[in-house]
């Protein structure tokens, strides 16, 4: 007597074709899948950026980091690569800065300054979170939400700089022979500073 699984008829795979009425459903599913994949990639990149922010003064660490690889930063050694990564991060933080002078002293800091102040004070000035919250007159929950927004904004600025550089170099990372450098972009600023993204 044969085991039950051997007595069953063999199943043949039949290609499934989408009907015209299934196409919108398939397109919506594909778009959702793409959005999910991009979200996961963004979260991974944001974690790299956050690690880079935590090690901002450490050129050697930055030069060996996944962030240096992701940004396609090159240099003659790890220290030079680390300096280029640091410059990229600083430029991305600076891109959050609103126009005009930063409110000083006991002046109330307007909301448009929150993201810049949180990033600049926490990672460049190395001021404690409690002190930043006190300066901004915000709760810990609001501070954490704004810090996540700021981290996301810095990550997007770095990705945009990478895209601009790749576009300027024809996607290969090597300069095009007669391609003009981006004048006022973050990527152009990085290139002028001696880094490559």
Please give a structural write-up.
Residues 175-184 have low confidence and may be disordered. With 197 residues, this protein is an all-alpha fold. The protein is 60% helix and 0% strand. It contains nine helices and no strands. The protein is globular, with a radius of gyration of 24 Å. Helix 5 packs antiparallel against helix 9 (186-192), helix 6 (114-124) packs across helix 8 and helix 8 crosses helix 9 (186-192). The chain has one domain.
In short:
This protein has 197 residues and is an all-alpha fold. Helices cover 60% and strands 0% of the residues.
Low-confidence stretches: 175-184
Give the biggest sheet: none
Distance between the termini: 68 Å
Q: Note the overall shape.
A: globular
Beta-strand residue fraction: under 5%
> How many beta-strand segments?
0
Average residue-wise pLDDT: 79
Tally of domains? 1
Radius of gyration: 24 Å
H/E element sequence: HHHHHHHHH
Number of helices: 9
SS class: mainly alpha
Helix content: 55-70%
Topology:
Layout: H1 4-7, H2 23-54, H3 59-64, H4 66-70, H5 78-94, H6 114-124, H7 129-136, H8 140-168, H9 186-192
Helix pairs in contact: 2-8, 5-8, 5-9, 6-8, 8-9
């Amino acid at each position: 007597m044969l085991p039950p699984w051997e007595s069953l008829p063999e199943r043949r795979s039949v290609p499934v074709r989408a009907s015209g009425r299934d196409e919108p459903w398939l397109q919506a599913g594909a778009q959702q899948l793409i959005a999910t994949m991009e979200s996961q990639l963004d979260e991974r990149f944001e974690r790299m950026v956050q690690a880079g922010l935590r090690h901002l003064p450490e050129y050697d660490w930055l030069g060996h980091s996944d962030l240096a690889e992701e940004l396609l930063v090159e240099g003659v050694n790890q220290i030079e690569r680390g300096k280029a990564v640091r410059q990229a991060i600083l430029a991305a933080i600076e891109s959050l800065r609103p126009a005009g002078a930063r409110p000083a002293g006991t002046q109330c800091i307007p909301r448009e300054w929150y993201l810049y102040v949180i990033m600049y004070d926490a990672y460049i000035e190395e001021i404690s979170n409690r002190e930043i919250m006190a300066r901004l007159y915000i709760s810990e929950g609001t501070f954490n939400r704004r810090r996540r927004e700021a981290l996301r904004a810095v990550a997007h600025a770095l990705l945009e700089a990478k895209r601009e550089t790749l576009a300027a170099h024809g996607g290969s990372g090597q300069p095009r022979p007669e391609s003009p450098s981006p004048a006022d972009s973050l990527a152009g600023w990085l290139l002028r500073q001696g880094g490559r993204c």
